[in-house]
Amino acid sequence: MLGLMQDQPLLISGLIEFAARHHHDGQIVSRRVEGDLHRYTYRDAARRSRQVAGAIDKLGLAFSDRVATLAWNGYRHLELYFGITGSGRVVHTINPRLAPDQIAWIANHAEDQVLCFDMTFLPIVKAVWSKCTTVKHWIALCEADALPGDTGIANLQSYEAWIGRESDRYDWPQFDEKSAAALCYTSGTTGNPKGALYSHRSTILHAYGGALPDALNLSARDSILPVVPMFHVNAWGIPYSAAMTGAKLVFPGAALDGKSVYELLEAERVTMAAGVPTVWLALLNHMAEHKLRFSTLTRTVIGGSACPPAMIRAFKDQYGVTVLHAWGMTEMSPLGTVCNLKGQQQALPPEAQMDVLVKQGRAVFGVEMRIVDPEGKELPWDGKVSGDLHVKGPWIISSYFKGEGGDPLIDGWFPTGDVAAIDPDGFLQITDRSKDVIKSGGEWISSIDVENIAMAHPGVAMAACIAVPHPKWDERPLLVVMRKPGSNATREEILAHFEGKVAKWQVPDDVVFVDAIPLGATGKMQKNKLRDQFRAHKLPTS
Amino acid sequence: MLGLMQDQPLLISGLIEFAARHHHDGQIVSRRVEGDLHRYTYRDAARRSRQVAGAIDKLGLAFSDRVATLAWNGYRHLELYFGITGSGRVVHTINPRLAPDQIAWIANHAEDQVLCFDMTFLPIVKAVWSKCTTVKHWIALCEADALPGDTGIANLQSYEAWIGRESDRYDWPQFDEKSAAALCYTSGTTGNPKGALYSHRSTILHAYGGALPDALNLSARDSILPVVPMFHVNAWGIPYSAAMTGAKLVFPGAALDGKSVYELLEAERVTMAAGVPTVWLALLNHMAEHKLRFSTLTRTVIGGSACPPAMIRAFKDQYGVTVLHAWGMTEMSPLGTVCNLKGQQQALPPEAQMDVLVKQGRAVFGVEMRIVDPEGKELPWDGKVSGDLHVKGPWIISSYFKGEGGDPLIDGWFPTGDVAAIDPDGFLQITDRSKDVIKSGGEWISSIDVENIAMAHPGVAMAACIAVPHPKWDERPLLVVMRKPGSNATREEILAHFEGKVAKWQVPDDVVFVDAIPLGATGKMQKNKLRDQFRAHKLPTS
User: Fold this and answer.
1) How many Å lie between the alpha carbon of B57 and the closest alpha carbon of chain A?
2) DSSP state, A458?
3) Which residues contact A99 (CB under 8 A, 6 or more apart)?
4) Which residues of B are known to be catalytic?
5) What is this structure's pTM?
6) Cα separations (Å) of B73 from A115, B34, B93, B231, B238?
7) Contacts of A341 in chain B (CB under 8 A)
8) How far, in whole angstroms, is CA B334 from its chain's centroid?
């Protein structure tokens, strides 16, 4: 027997209409590519999202056709999020940091019909447009009079002209909530990129989960700055959770340097910011250099990579800002865990709390976790033993777009590729990526543990620990260090810094200094490049 | 095209298993009928919920068969919530404050197969068991040795013996998330009671919505005391939202007097309590009398009836506790709106904030609202004009159990029977129940407005404003007053109290004093009884 509840599908169009009706004057502030600040409301965003939907209809796109974006965080990108999905099409966010050939490959694989791009990315579009065989319409996110005339790009028009012809009234279609809504490719280190195809249902459930007090804790009293890009996993779902709760949105556009981010945080009275560690490093450096303080920021969510404990301490001790460590993946929409203390942990002394806060946190309801040994046997949650992390839930993929890579699931669980321990309170700690673990004489060394210690050295700006082949131990750790400006930290000083912090056999065998550590399109260190570069490095121990 | 997300149904069993895994030592404290405090954890609750599920299987019940409860808020009731629904059956919570004949009528209408009752209600069960023709098993919520031997009730056994025979391991079945999960009858003032039949899907979505920061704001740092009964609309969904978030649960059992509630709030470090105004009145009176303070309580959710502004002020000004005004209905699972300030309202002076806080609040995402005039035309959200309130959403009923009362929807909207205004910020203010409005000479007088003014008089404990027939004006307001102990407030003093607060024609024509105002099974004033009692009252103006 079924319950007698209204049969209303969970659709993304419901989010923007809810925001327009209940938070009509809720603010959305965007730093534009042009440098100025654009300011409008949820009601305006809804009107223009409806215009986007109408404009897509006019192009004659079929249900579930893909419309791509190549854009910064900003109000037009937000309108595309809602207009494309609400009209029944799929918003395909492309990471502009990928190489042009990869972008063309992805657009072709997704069979994008339309591609909307910020003017910053005109050079990319010029380089790829003729290779994108399915794209019939190119939309430049600008005013009509800002459209360059000599691009050679076929069927190019300005966004404002495109949507300006449409009514701001639109009847959002109702359809199966399991319909595809958004597509995002993972930047796999091996093989071709693979697409995660989110549904309306998964997006709404994830928006609920993400807004919960023990997740991102979003309310109509918040002002949120997502540094995490909208071109990558829906900016952690923040645009959707914000519309659900009426939170103010502050979009940084292309200006992600410490000074620009700081000024925006202050001017727009931001209470919560979210991003990857590398951006926060730039912010903290800028603040330290200019002796600045935060006026309104209370918390910052850090994810995308494990956050160095030193950074958590710096935010808390120097600026009174709580770092919420988070963990997720493109395949998980992306939220898996967020690190918020439990009731009894609030009474712990600061150092004991820090032991909790350095972990990736607790699962949001909707995400189930398990750790397993190499034979697939489930391991206990004792906070010590680590194993392959598997996840399950309604906002986690069942397979990749077009079935690429075959069936990824193991007994219904998605293997994350992370190695992790889980403590009895359910706090997850990522030990390493499976492929980054250093296998030394039958024992495993966590590259993350080594990097965290190195990053706490005052002369180290960034550090990567990688495996280098070793004749006796199979692999041994090599530490690749980018010094802070002005630092002369030596190999010996840095190695001495490990004393007493880890077992001797876990200390790197050598340190090399580099001017820059290569970062991937989502800001993560590209250790595979470093492994290639230092594969032949002669360790003093070998 | 469908998204490629895992096809995992939203089931209630997922909540208790999540709590057991992620909050295994999260506490559940219950004041038992015996008077003592029982204390255990979510892990224990999950184990015993599985035993309940196993025990129900053994009875041979079919999928969706109803299992009734007649019980206070407590741990065994919680286990029944999860065990019954998780096993695929429907938990039918019966309000023990109904008359025995009504209880028998409801049990027969629901075709309950099993009925579980607290020992407090043994007299009711003795009175009705032979009339409940579908109930095959009676379960007394007690130890085996506490079971009275001389009841005459057929197939009576103790809960502990019943579940004690079962394993605490159980494979929860997976099924359609739209399956029926819980049944609750409304205590309609006319006609037979009608059942709202909740689904697993609606329950999970409601649990997400209810836990949001702008709703009940539940986290693993909270200790929650639901005074609102589990026998009525799932205690506002709190047991489910608590399991979702790992919040500590504190159940008051039968002891709802001011002293007992106060002691439990303090002893269990409760941060949030939820209930109807009448319970809080008793609590505030007890505290004023003994000059007590709260140590940990930060907020209290008040719903079920409009909360008098005087009570909101008393909590805030005297005790520093924020009252969250909430509104909902049995037909809405029940949450519709909660009154939390928006960002810009936080800067308002206290009196202007109070103007917001006396309203019923903003819709939780998942609830759509509209107000319409008698012709069904939608009215503006200007905070002034009021009309019939309609609602829509995935946790609102489409029809009543067994189709009783026909199709209640109007163009897909559920008519609440409330008259309300909505302001531009989306804050709902219930003006009245449609049937309680006083229609005086073509103008409407809100009975709630009149009562709120009367309740602010220092000598008034409770007040009800009802319509009395009038030869010239059709209806005129009569104020029925229950004085505070020791008060000698007169008719003239109370009427003088209205001066300058409302238009002269809105002042009641007369005041009558009573020893008690009749309350319904859910603690609401039964104005229909007062209308019957005072139908022939001779107004001085007629």
Assistant:
1) 17
2) T
3) none
4) 186, 331, 439, 444
5) 0.89
6) 56, 13, 11, 8, 11
7) 220-221
8) 7
